[in-house]
Amino acid sequence: MKRFAAFDIDGTLIRWQLYHAVVDKLAQDELLGSEARQRLHDARMIWKRREHPEAFKAYEKELIRVYESALPNLSAAQFDKAVNRVAEEYKSQVYTYTRSLAKRLKAKGYTLIAISGSHTELVQHVAKQFGFDIWVGSEYERAGNRFTGKRIIASHNKEQTLNQLIKQHGLSRTGSYAVGDSRTDAPMLAMVDHPIAFNPDQELFDLAQQHKWPIVIERKNVVYKLEPRDGSYVLAETSE
């Protein structure tokens, strides 16, 4: 049975949110309605000004509402064109630590898994580029050149998704890794021998402390690895 390493993608491998990027691109092209750009701008600025602790979540919810409300008028061809542009723009905008970790584990024979809340079409681009073996993203059902409105969001239950993949592909948890940056990644991290909270949000940071998970921060051109020791965290050496 092969060992595996499961990675979140947005904010963990890629330096931004692919879901956000493609919705922004569609809005800029005026494919999501006349008010889409302004709605996204207003929600994003509330987050950037840090007006309240839940501002980023509120911005994400508004972005999803803008996208999903426009689906009946969006063609699959228009969406795919935007996906290709975003994939080309962001393919090299990655974190050094997670890129190197994925490459190193791949060389050791690990099965690389990407589980993301971004659209499957985008996740596939990234996964293939960096040698991932399995990838799962959010699926918006198609009927010909249109979207039906039905969806499956992979990030809603990453533990369930990962369990299914482990069984389906005959993988072993022994020596396994998982890397994530937000609260939704915590159940996935709790499943493996080597969890890594990478650039964690506040909720994941708190959980990492509770569970004594390693924390890795990549800022500018420096990678900081914090390891639990004697009830606190110490700065550990990293080769990345």
Describe the structure.
This protein has helices at 18-28, 36-48, 55-70, 76-90, 96-107, 120-129, 158-169, 186-189, 202-211, and strands at 2-7, 111-119, 134-143, 146-152, 171-180, 194-198, 215-219, 222-229, 232-236. The protein is of the alpha/beta class and 240 residues long. The model has no long low-confidence stretch (mean pLDDT 94).
Question: What are the salient characteristics of this protein?
Answer:
240 residues, alpha/beta, Rossmann fold, 2 domains, nine-stranded mixed beta sheet, 9 helices, globular
Major beta sheet summary? 9 strands, mixed
Q: What ranges have pLDDT less than 50 throughout 5 or more consecutive residues?
A: none
**Strand-and-helix sequence, N→C?**
EHHHHHEHEEHEHEHEEE
Helical coverage, percent range: 40-55%
Task: Write down the overall mean pLDDT.
Answer: 94
- Please state the second-level CATH architecture of the largest domain: 3-Layer(aba) Sandwich
Brief summary of the model shown:
The chain is α/β, with parallel strands linked by helices.
Secondary-structure blueprint:
Elements: E1 2-7, H1 18-28, H2 36-48, H3 55-70, H4 76-90, H5 96-107, E2 111-119, H6 120-129, E3 134-143, E4 146-152, H7 158-169, E5 171-180, H8 186-189, E6 194-198, H9 202-211, E7 215-219, E8 222-229, E9 232-236
Parallel strand pairs: 1-2, 1-5, 2-3, 5-6, 6-7
Antiparallel strand pairs: 3-4, 7-8, 8-9
Helix pairs in contact: 1-4, 2-3, 4-6
